[in-house]
Specification:
By secondary structure, the protein is an all-alpha fold. The chain is built from 8 helices and no strands. The chain has 2 domains: 101 residues, Rna Polymerase Sigma Factor, Chain: A; 73 residues, Winged helix-like DNA-binding domain superfamily/Winged helix DNA-binding domain (Arc Repressor Mutant, subunit A, Orthogonal Bundle), CATH 1.10.10.10.
């Protein structure tokens, strides 16, 4: 991750209208944002919405609402961006749950973690997509509290105290839950 001074400079430049600075900030977090959106959306929402479209929408909303963002130290832009994503996912899930869309009409989808595998050849890209899909399927099999703590710790990059605040539990419970969740995920991954 980039140093704090560089991040703060990019945020200040982006606030000043520097599109290249905002693009650089978004690029830093795009791969993890894709992972977060796919994993957090779950199978039901993924069946109705393209995760790539959701990520694009989050990035567009970040562009449009940057004036609402305030620098609060290293990691604050990432937390703000992932909060936008979480709110978008909740809104879309609520929308579909309310029955305002016919899920059968919507044939969405995209390749697993589109682009996260990097700029490799076709075989490496396929292997990366296969591994990402397997990871996603194992995450889907976790209990919600285990999936959430893994996403917050490993994808969003929150510290234990921040996760504790987000989940409404103490730091010791975060450590225990994360340990158990990672152990369960490893078991599922090993089982195939």
């Amino acid at each position: 991750m980039a140093d704090s001074a560089d991040s703060q400079h990019l945020v200040a430049a982006a606030h000043g209208g520097d599109q290249a600075a905002l693009d650089a900030l978004l690029r830093r977090h795009l791969a993890d944002l894709r992972v977060f959106v796919r994993a957090k959306s779950g199978p039901a929402l993924r069946a109705q919405e393209s995760c790539s479209d959701l990520v694009q929408t989050v990035c567009r909303e970040a562009l449009q609402s940057l004036d609402q963002y305030e620098w609060r130290g290293e990691g604050s832009f990432r937390r703000w961006l992932f909060t936008l994503a979480l709110n978008k996912l909740r809104n879309r899930a609520d929308f579909h749950a309310a029955g305002r869309r016919d899920a059968a009409r919507l044939a969405g989808g995209d390749s697993a973690l589109g682009g996260v595998a990097g700029d490799h050849g076709p075989s490496q890209h396929a292997i990366g997509n296969e591994a990402a899909l397997r990871f996603e399927q194992c995450l889907d099999r976790l209990a919600d509290d285990h999936r959430d703590v893994i996403l917050l710790a490993r994808v969003v990059g929150l510290e234990h105290r921040e996760i504790a605040h987000e989940l409404g539990i103490n730091e010791g419970a975060v450590r225990t839950r994360l340990s158990r969740a990672l152990s369960r995920l490893a078991t599922l991954m090993a089982a195939g």
